[in-house]
């Protein structure tokens, strides 16, 4: 009985034989390809982890590689109800006593009351409103000459220079209130009229003509005294009084309160946070490197970059830099260890917070230079890592090499598939011919058997 899969009708399973022979011939090169694929994939993954960790650490160094980053200041007012301040670059630590004589104020005037309310017809013509040397004019025509119409015309004027109008109702009638949008003594409101029926005259206001309005708020500048020196400002926000400080005036000082004091100090808290962030980022990188070069004797498991010379050189360079001496520093501020940042047995960094605070308190600027000067730790580390990561650098070159190897392995895999297909076809042809020959022999054998049986039968018949 023929076996399933036989091609030529014999008892040979051609397809089965071909599959087994091809599988046996394929096994060794395919196993090698799989080993090479695993090795290269692992190395690419490990290199990616290393590059990612280095890039993250480089980012943490970006804000530390200039001395200016460590020159942050903090400012505190002893009376924040009177004056506050924000600090920028260039502020010099010190104390500044400030007396506030007056705060800047926007001009506001309220017209005499109109008993008829907002629908009172005032008059026609033109009203010109001036403020701070600028002016605009609104036309008041018949049919649109009520107090409410005038308010609307003022507020909707495209060239309005900053005068806002509103109506206020009271027991005596309705008043037109004009307010300046800008503080300062120079920004007083003036109103003149021209043309029309003369009714708008009751809304005019200016020097020598104040009877039509009550002054609700006087236009005035902020007046302050710093170390006895007078300064005026049209705004309550003053950024030109003390280098690096922006003052916000809130209310005048009194005899009881006395002057407010602004204390400008180095911002030790902000710098401490930056230093600790640097240590955390460095330790994260060291931890990643340790994993990549690790070896577990219990399980005999090695990290993917154990013994890798590139990884070893990066680790050594990092350790040399963080433990190195920065030239040109004040005595006692030449190394990270001098300010309380030391290398631990596992290569990570530890912080002696008390020692760090003492260093910041005794020579704040030298701590900044230790990190951000030309030869500072952060600047050196940034340059070194940036060089490693740049296009054409050692890591980029290694990555390209591994990528090329990966492509070569893929090609080997494709070539093996093509070769094995050819081998399978060759075996199939050979065994098909053999199968056909065996089938022919089988037919011949059956014929001969029949002929012999026939002769035997004839001999038996003749012997009777």
Automatic annotation (TrEMBL):
Record-level GO cellular component terms: bacterial-type flagellum filament cap; bacterial-type flagellum hook; extracellular region
Free-text function comment from the UniProt entry: Required for morphogenesis and for the elongation of the flagellar filament by facilitating polymerization of the flagellin monomers at the tip of growing filament. Forms a capping structure, which prevents flagellin subunits (transported through the central channel of the flagellum) from leaking out without polymerization at the distal end.
Recorded coiled-coil stretches: none
Oligomeric and partner information: Homopentamer.
Residue intervals of the Flagellar hook-associated protein 2 N-terminal domain: 10-107
Source organism phylogeny: Bacteria, Pseudomonadati, Pseudomonadota, Gammaproteobacteria, Steroidobacterales
Domain Flagellar hook-associated protein 2 C-terminal, residue spans: 219-442
Superkingdom of source: Bacteria
Main location per the UniProt record: secreted
Official protein name in the record: Flagellar hook-associated protein 2
Organism: Povalibacter uvarum
Keywords linked to the UniProt accession: Bacterial flagellum, Cell projection, Cilium, Coiled coil, Flagellum, Secreted
GO biological process: bacterial-type flagellum-dependent cell motility; cell adhesion
Family the entry assigns: Belongs to the FliD family.
Pfam families in the record: Flagellin_IN, FliD_C, FliD_N
InterPro entries the record matches: Flagellin_hook_IN_motif (IPR010810), FliD (IPR040026), FliD_C (IPR010809), FliD_N (IPR003481)
Subcellular location, record wording: Secreted; Bacterial flagellum
Keyword Lipoprotein in annotation: no
């Amino acid at each position: 009985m023929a076996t399933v899969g036989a091609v030529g009708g014999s008892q040979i399973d051609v397809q089965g034989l071909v599959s087994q022979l091809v599988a046996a011939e394929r096994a060794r090169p395919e196993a090698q390809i799989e080993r090479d694929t695993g090795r290269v994939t692992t190395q690419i993954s490990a290199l990616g982890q290393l590059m990612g960790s280095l890039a993250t650490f480089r980012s943490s160094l970006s804000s530390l590689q200039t001395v200016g980053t460590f020159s942050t200041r903090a400012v505190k007012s002893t009376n924040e109800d009177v004056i506050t301040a924000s600090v920028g670059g260039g502020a010099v630590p010190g104390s500044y006593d400030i007396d506030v004589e007056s705060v800047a104020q926007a001009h506001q005037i309220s017209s005499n009351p109109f008993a008829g309310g907002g629908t009172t017809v005032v008059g026609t013509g033109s009203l010109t409103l001036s403020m701070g040397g600028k002016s605009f004019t609104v036309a008041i025509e018949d049919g649109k000459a009520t107090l409410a119409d005038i308010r609307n015309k003022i507020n909707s004027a495209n060239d309005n220079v900053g005068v806002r109008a509103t109506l206020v109702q009271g027991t005596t009638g309705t008043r037109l209130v004009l307010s300046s949008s800008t503080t300062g003594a120079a920004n007083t409101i003036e109103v003149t009229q021209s043309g029309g029926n003369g009714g708008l005259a009751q809304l005019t206001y200016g020097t020598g003509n104040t009877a039509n309005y009550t002054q609700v708020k006087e236009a005035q500048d902020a007046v302050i005294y710093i170390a006895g020196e007078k300064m005026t400002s049209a705004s309550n926000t003053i950024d030109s009084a003390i280098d690096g400080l922006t003052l916000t005036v809130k209310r005048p000082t009194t005899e009881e309160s006395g002057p407010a004091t602004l204390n400008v100090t180095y911002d030790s808290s902000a710098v401490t946070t930056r230093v600790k962030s640097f240590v955390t980022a460095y330790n994260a990188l060291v931890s990643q490197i340790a994993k990549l070069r690790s070896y577990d004797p219990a399980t005999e498991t090695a990290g993917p970059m154990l013994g890798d010379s590139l990884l070893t050189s990066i680790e050594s360079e990092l350790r040399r830099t963080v433990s190195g001496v920065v030239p040109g520093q004040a005595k006692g501020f030449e190394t990270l260890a001098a300010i309380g940042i030391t290398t631990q047995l596992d290569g990570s960094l530890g912080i002696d917070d008390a020692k760090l605070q003492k260093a910041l308190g005794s020579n704040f600027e030298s701590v900044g230079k230790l990190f951000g000067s030309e030869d500072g730790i952060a600047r050196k580390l940034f340059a070194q890592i940036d060089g490693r990561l740049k296009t054409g650098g050692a890591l980029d070159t290694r990555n390209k090499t591994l990528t090329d190897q990966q492509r070569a392995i893929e090609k080997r895999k494709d070539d093996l598939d093509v070769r094995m297909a050819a081998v399978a076809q060759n075996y199939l042809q050979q065994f098909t011919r053999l199968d056909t020959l065996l089938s022919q022999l089988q037919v011949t054998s059956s014929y001969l058997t029949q002929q012999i049986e026939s002769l035997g039968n004839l001999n038996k018949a003749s012997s009777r």
